[in-house]
Amino acid sequence: MNLGILLNKHVEKLHGEREGVCVLCGNKGRGFSINKVVSGNFTAWEFLNAGTIFCETCASSYKEQKLRRKSWIANQNEIIYFKNDDAEHYLFNPLEPPFFIHIAKKGQKQTWLSLFNVPAYNKNAYMFSYENFNYGIYFEKNKAKKYLDLIKFLLKKKVVKSELYQGIFKSKTWEKALKESYEEKLFEAKEYSQNPLWMVMVDVARI
Ligand SMILES: [Zn+2]
């Protein structure tokens, strides 16, 4: 199983022109020369492996523009494109495995290619992709819930996302926390802020 196969039903099927080894899935088969598939401003060379073609299956999903522009969750039967207001819901309540989740930001870089051969099999612990990171992020449900509760608590206290994202707080933020006796929450946030999962949770948290 790979994401080409997972997404197969949801994308327009392309028919290959030549034989070769696929740079995404590594399989031998029919496909397209690499230059024919990627554009001049292709930004994801680091996600490709040794090979000579994009096979039909992989090229079909790679060329689907919606997979680049939008956030999505998919399994073999279903694909849901979602707004990032709903990202929390889908991260905590994914589809039946194997599934995959990609969270887009600007809709430019297909960082889901970095996990092309890593669909998710466990709803409580899995890898997903987030456009701002060139590598996969490990979702652990308990940890994510703990992060999210803390983030929402601090957002309600008017701590801003840019502070939470970096774990660096303004003196005014510390003053308010000391006055209202939740400064330990800021220390805790500071400790978590280096974790990519924390950063995604800050981004997707809504109060
Ligand atoms: Zn392939």
Task: Describe the structure in your own words.
- The chain has ten helices and eight strands.
- The chain is α+β, with helices and mostly antiparallel strands.
- It folds into two domains: 3-135, no CATH class; 141-204, no CATH class.
- Strands 5-4-6-7-8 form a five-stranded mixed β-sheet. Strands 1-2-3 form a three-stranded antiparallel β-sheet.
- Helix 6 crosses helix 9 (183-192), helix 6 packs across helix 10 (196-204) and helix 8 packs across helix 9 (183-192).
- The longest helix has 16 residues, at 141-156.
- It is elongated.
- Zinc ion binds at residues 4, 22, 24-25, 27, 55, 57-58.
- Zinc ion binds next to helix 3.
Alpha-beta content class: alpha+beta
Would you list the SSEs in sequence order as H and E? Answer: HEEHEHHEEHEEEHHHHH
Residues in β-strands, percent:
15-25%
Helix content: 25-40%
User: Main β-sheet, in a few words?
Assistant: 5 strands, mixed
Q: How many domains make up the 3D coordinates?
A: 2
Tell me the overall shape. Answer: elongated
Q: Which residues form runs of ≥5 with pLDDT under 50?
A: none
Secondary structure tally: strands:
8
Number of helices: 10
Bound molecules: zinc ion
Distance from first to last alpha carbon: 37 Å
Mean pLDDT: 96
